[in-house]
Amino acid sequence: FDPRHYLGTHCYSLPKTGPHRLRFLLESVKDLRETLKKKGSTLVVRKGKPEDVVCDLITQLGSVTAVVFHEEVREIL
């Protein structure tokens, strides 16, 4: 979870993630973790800026062969 997603937007400082969206997101992550657990896997969840936590996570996991990112699309005004 990137803390910047819970701050105000670039324009107008409106919340990017309100309480209902946050609840849905948390419930979705919990459900995904439970589903993966039933299949013998797990879900690693971290809080922080991705550029700060990814290296630590890779080091902790040890046998990482690939890392995939996505970038938020921003509308140019």
> Could you name the CATH class?
Alpha Beta
**Tally of strands:** 0
Query: Strand pairing plus helix content: what structural class?
Result: mainly alpha
Here the CATH topology equals Rossmann fold
Q: How much strand? A: under 5%
Helicity level: 40-55%
Tally of DSSP helical segments: 2
Distance between termini?
A: 27 Å
CATH-level-2 architecture: 3-Layer(aba) Sandwich
Main beta sheet: strand number and arrangement? none
Inertia-based shape:
globular
User: Which consecutive residue ranges, at least 5 long each, have pLDDT under 50?
Assistant: none
Alpha-carbon Rg, integer: 15 Å
Characterization of the model:
This protein is an all-alpha fold and 77 residues long. It has a single domain (1-59), classed as Rossmann fold (3-Layer(aba) Sandwich). The chain has 2 helices and no strands. It has helices at residues 19-38, 50-61. The two termini are 27 Å apart. The model has no long low-confidence stretch (mean pLDDT 85).
Question: What keyword list fits this structure?
Answer:
single chain; 77 residues; mainly alpha; Rossmann fold; 2 helices; 42% helix; globular; deoxyribodipyrimidine photo-lyase activity; CRYD protein; Cryptochrome/DNA_photolyase_1
